[in-house]
Amino acid sequence: MKFLLLLFLLVFASCIVEGQKLTKDTNDYIIDYSDKLGLFLYSKIKISNFSFVDETNNYRLIYSPNSQTNIGFGFNYKRVNIGIAFDLFNNDNYKYGKTKRIDWQANLYGNKAIIDILFHSYQSHYIRNPQDVFPTYVNGDPNYIRPDILNNGFGFSYIYIFNYKKFSYRAAFLGNARQKKSNGSWFAGGGFFSENISGDSSLFPQKSYFSIYPQITSISTFAIGLKGGYATCIVVKKYFYLSTSLGTSVYFGKRRILTDISTMHDKNEIYGSFQPRFAVGISKEKWFAGFSVVNDFFMFSSISKTNGLSLNYQYGNARLFVGKRFNLSKTIKIFN
């Protein structure tokens, strides 16, 4: 049932975002290639971690699932943009643990709006920075792996692009358009975020800098909020581009923290987040190539105001792609 609901949201959101037409007066700034078939190859790394920060002593504990590098192919045409990737070169379970995962990250770029959808479930994590967590750590020690830690999350956000007639996210992040002249745009929107982290025992390792804190076994968060920011694209020598974007959000929500003996924290709070996007590449009439990064940083208030311990989430992806465009109308005429 959850899978069907997610599939419906993806299809519905894709139709909303990609169903918008470019008007004629955008030709001075944007060339639309959505009527051409774009075939591309790409490599993608998904970013995911959560961290506890001791703000008093400046200690940080970062948990990550065993990351994957995926390689795949895809196409874009009209309103459709589909990519299929495979896990081909990840054989380091002995070092970082075997993570069972469900991970869907959809960034849907339209002319007037962007919709981001996140749904993940990670079972098994390891500590990425043991040198900052264990006072007795020696370089070369085995990684600290927690196969019991489960991290489930779901998020949705929508932003409206005010200057969509002169600025295109699609050109930099999809490749089915081209930004002809440098320009930028303010944007605004909103969304919600739900996250749950749990373990069979305390999330803080024994004999670590964090073992002095209450033995937290579960943290659940749900928040809804508003987002705004600015994006720009710089075009160099007609075909080279550099696109940057920074969005900030204020979320209002509720968090529940459980320890091994009781509920430690259960109340409404205000959270903050910021989302940088970056893309660089080249876009010509018949082919395109680029590199892009999308990141979400969720920053939460102190878990315990008496000791300055806070919790942060980070999710996103980095993508390297190259593709070629084909004029289907000419191809169809040849066969007719």
Q: Characteristics of this structure?
A:
mainly beta, Lipocalin, two-stranded antiparallel ribbon
Task: Describe the protein in words.
The protein has one domain (2-335): Lipocalin (Beta Barrel). The protein has helices at 2-18, 93-96, 169-173, 328-335, and strands at residues 30-32, 37-54, 59-64, 69-77, 80-87, 100-109, 113-127, 145-161, 177-179, 183-198, 216-236, 240-259, 263-283, 287-299, 309-326. The chain has 336 residues and is mainly beta. The longest helix is centred in the first third of the chain and has 17 residues, at 2-18. The termini are far apart. Mean pLDDT is 86; it is low at 1-25 and 332-336. The protein has a ten-stranded antiparallel beta barrel with strand order 2-3-7-8-10-11-12-13-14-15. The chain has a two-stranded antiparallel ribbon with strand order 1-9. Strand 12 (240-259) and strand 13 form a beta hairpin. Helix content is 10%, strand content 59%. It contains four helices and 15 strands.
